[in-house]
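Deliverable D2.4 — example input (structure tokens):
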């Protein structure tokens, strides 16, 4: 491949129409798709019909609510296929655009194949460890009375873990699959109008978002109904209770988190190492534009947008939704059991219905963004952000209506007739929280607002002042989101607590479930928010293709505008993700304490940090966040250094690159970042998985010898609590500072403060390169880390006792 790229017989380099090396040695199709394509169409239809029949049969045996969830998910999958057909029907533009797109697609698919091969091996190894632990662990009295032995629990947890890992991998692949096909179509559409390019990018992102959310929902629904039918829930006396089922799903959330963490780390290291290397040598040293075809690292940079932003973010949001659904199901079941509600299935299945409605309302939001008949470039360009915001506003209004309907349908109980209204208000709190998070992040990262413009102005006095201003902006940006989260947690807790639901002793029990409902409210527009996120890297890639194929400046202006908006939407999604991670982790923490109490048969309602060992556990949790972030950023730095050396070498050894008489060796940079990112993702990922298990096990042994049997569990609880708090603040800082640095550079590139090539622009590029690993490697990985710590402690709780 390297020889093709470096020495391919492509004619004079400066000639137009431009042609680029086709990096594809052979078309890659995943094994499962190759098998499906090899099956006769009629046989495939029969198998699909039987599969759907089995799913609906299990759903009917379980609950009509599950049938509703299955139906909505399948309809949304059909709608996403329509979106795909619509996007793929658009033209790909001239041959030079298609060749660049093929090079990006080949690099992305090749890296994805290698990366997920590595992740799958690690997942199988961890599955064996979980199986071993569960086969030798103790069981709760409830499990013994219902006949679920050690081996059954072990195989159920491992199966759920592997299914979660597979679904998370598919979610990532879907995100990348559509982005590498939509980018060239957006580039082509930008030659006609900004509105058409925007519509294609949004619909391509919408396809990915609907598949990710739909798979998270249908995966959990299938697991739940399978366990319900297989274990004979609520059948004979002594059988498994329906309220115990959600705890069996925890493995699914852990599997999703495991894959998402490594996908985010590997993809983030890949994309930012290539980006930093390309910018430092190309823009700063050589003074060539972004995505210039003369830059040897440009293809690696464009590949990185797909594997880092699309594939990794799809896996990230998938595990966010999976963790939130499972934690809310656990809390709903626990509360229904305490309040002796006759039919608890509504409280348990409520999260699945909320996300089913999410698929419907987000589809309406996606369809609300239409193209215009006037495709002339001379017509005034509308602000893409305001168009996306209109779609989001429509989605928000529909979310409020469907959420109220869902609470009345599923959360109405004769024991507390007005409780459903309180929970509807909890959902409203969550929806408002999501909207505020999107607005706050937009304020700090969009160059229409003062913070980014002030940051850009600091570049006038040099590189150092740009860095100082960016760090201070990031630190300041943590304040408003934390206040919003704090108010939402407290208000949702008290709305739930005053709902009228009480246990046998007359104590109010709805508080935690109120917080769970607020989390569901926050994520009730997740599919549309993910659509806005996927729009970003597609627009970024489209701009790269336009620049590399040397399209007119008017076309590049359109893709630059879409790219700047894409930076803001990516930043808002990260803000949204960290907010939901904070709420979901709070729920999973409560579920962990309940599970410890069930295993130990002792009350475990609070953690006393005045106990030295518990305080140390908290310190270790905070340290874990800082060490993990350091290793993630250092990995980008080391890999970027290799890219910088390679790009400099090529400019020195091939001086003809600058005047188009020699071709850069793109494949060399692709190979460097691919191998380095796979090598570098292991250390921080292993730290995240091993730390809580090692700490819990060591303090369990210490507790055994000092006569404190719950010491291990208490220390892990403190570790989880402090890591969550530190992780939220660190992720907010990293995400916002990185996004602001990027858009300060974009603002200067619009012609402000001297424009491209000025000293001010070079200082802004330095800030952008510092912010790259912040916002696209360490920051997003922390979202996953926070939730994975919560799910891993839930799964591994038995070894801490």
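Example output (designed residues):
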């Amino acid at each position: 491949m390297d020889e093709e790229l470096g020495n391919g017989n492509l004619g004079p380099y400066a000639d137009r129409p431009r042609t680029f090396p086709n990096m594809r040695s052979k078309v890659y199709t995943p094994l499962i798709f190759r098998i499906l394509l090899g099956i006769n169409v009629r046989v495939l239809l029969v198998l699909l019909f039987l599969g759907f029949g089995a799913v609906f049969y299990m759903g009917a045996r379980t609950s009509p609510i599950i049938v509703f969830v299955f139906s909505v998910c399948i309809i949304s999958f059909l709608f996403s296929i329509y979106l795909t057909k619509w996007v793929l029907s658009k033209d790909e533009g001239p041959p030079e655009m298609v060749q660049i797109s093929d090079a990006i697609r080949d690099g992305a698919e090749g890296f994805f194949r290698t990366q997920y091969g590595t992740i799958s091996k690690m997942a199988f190894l961890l599955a064996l460890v979980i199986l071993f632990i569960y086969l030798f662990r103790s069981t709760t009295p409830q499990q013994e009375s219902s006949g679920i032995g050690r081996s059954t629990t072990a195989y159920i947890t491992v199966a759920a873990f592997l299914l979660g890992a597979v679904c998370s991998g598919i979610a990532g692949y879907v995100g990348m699959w559509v982005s590498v096909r939509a980018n060239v179509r957006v580039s082509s559409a930008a030659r006609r109008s900004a509105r058409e390019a925007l519509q294609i990018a949004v619909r391509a992102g919408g396809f990915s978002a609907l598949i990710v959310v739909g798979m998270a929902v249908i995966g959990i629904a299938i697991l739940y109904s399978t366990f319900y039918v297989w274990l004979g829930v609520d059948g004979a006396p002594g059988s498994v209770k329906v309220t115990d089922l959600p705890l069996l799903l925890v493995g699914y959330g852990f599997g999703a988190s495991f894959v998402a963490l490594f996908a985010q780390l590997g993809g983030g290291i890949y994309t930012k190492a290539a980006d930093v290397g390309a910018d430092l040598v190309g823009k700063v040293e050589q003074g060539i534009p972004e995505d210039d075809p003369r830059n040897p690292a440009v293809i690696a940079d464009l590949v990185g947008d797909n594997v880092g932003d699309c594939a990794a973010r799809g896996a990230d949001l998938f595990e966010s939704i999976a963790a939130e659904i499972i934690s809310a199901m656990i809390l709903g079941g626990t509360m229904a059991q305490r309040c002796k509600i006759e039919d608890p299935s509504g409280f348990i299945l409520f999260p699945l219905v909320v996300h089913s409605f999410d698929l419907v309302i987000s589809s309406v939001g996606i369809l609300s963004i239409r193209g215009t008949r006037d495709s002339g470039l001379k017509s005034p360009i509308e602000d893409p952000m305001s168009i996306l915001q209109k779609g989001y506003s429509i989605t928000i209004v529909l979310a409020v209506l469907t959420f109220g309907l869902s609470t009345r349908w599923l959360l109405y109980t004769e024991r507390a007739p007005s409780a459903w209204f309180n929970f509807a208000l909890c959902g409203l709190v969550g929806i408002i929280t999501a909207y505020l998070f999107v607005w706050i992040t937009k304020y700090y990262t969009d160059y229409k607002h003062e913070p980014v413009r002030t940051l850009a102005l600091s570049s006038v006095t040099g590189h150092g002042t740009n860095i100082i201003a960016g760090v201070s902006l990031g630190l300041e940006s943590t304040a408003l989101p934390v206040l919003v989260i704090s108010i939402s947690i407290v208000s949702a807790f008290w709305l739930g607590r005053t709902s009228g639901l009480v246990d046998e002793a007359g104590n109010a029990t709805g508080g935690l479930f109120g917080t769970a409902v607020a989390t569901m409210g926050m994520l009730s527009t997740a599919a549309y928010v993910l659509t806005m996120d996927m729009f970003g890297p597609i627009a970024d890639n489209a701009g790269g293709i336009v620049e590399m194929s040397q399209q007119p400046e008017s076309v590049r202006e359109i893709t630059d505008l879409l790219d700047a908006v894409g930076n803001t939407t990516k930043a808002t999604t990260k803000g949204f993700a960290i907010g939901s991670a904070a709420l979901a982790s709070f729920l999973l923490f409560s579920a962990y304490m309940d599970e410890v109490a069930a295993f130990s048969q002792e009350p475990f309602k609070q953690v006393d940090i005045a106990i030295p060992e518990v305080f140390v556990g908290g310190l270790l949790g905070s340290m874990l966040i800082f060490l993990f972030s350091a290793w993630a950023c250092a990995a980008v730095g080391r890999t970027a250094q290799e890219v910088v050396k390679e790009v400099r070498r090529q400019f020195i050894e091939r001086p003809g690159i600058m005047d188009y008489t020699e071709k850069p060796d793109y494949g060399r940079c692709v190979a460097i970042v691919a191998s380095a990112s796979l090598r570098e993702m292991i250390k921080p990922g292993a730290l995240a998985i091993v730390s809580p298990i090692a700490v819990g096990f060591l303090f369990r042994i210490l507790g055994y010898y000092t006569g404190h049997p719950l010491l291990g569990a208490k220390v892990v609880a403190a570790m989880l609590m402090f890591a969550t708090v530190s992780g939220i603040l660190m992720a907010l800082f990293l995400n916002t500072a990185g996004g602001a640095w990027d858009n300060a550079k974009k603002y200067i590139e619009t012609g402000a403060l001297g424009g491209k090539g000025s000293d001010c622009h070079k200082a802004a590029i330095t800030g952008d390169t510092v912010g790259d690993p912040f916002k696209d490697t360490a920051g997003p990985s922390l979202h996953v880390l926070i939730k994975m710590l919560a799910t891993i402690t839930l799964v591994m709780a038995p070894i801490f006792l």
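The longest helix spans residues 553-600.
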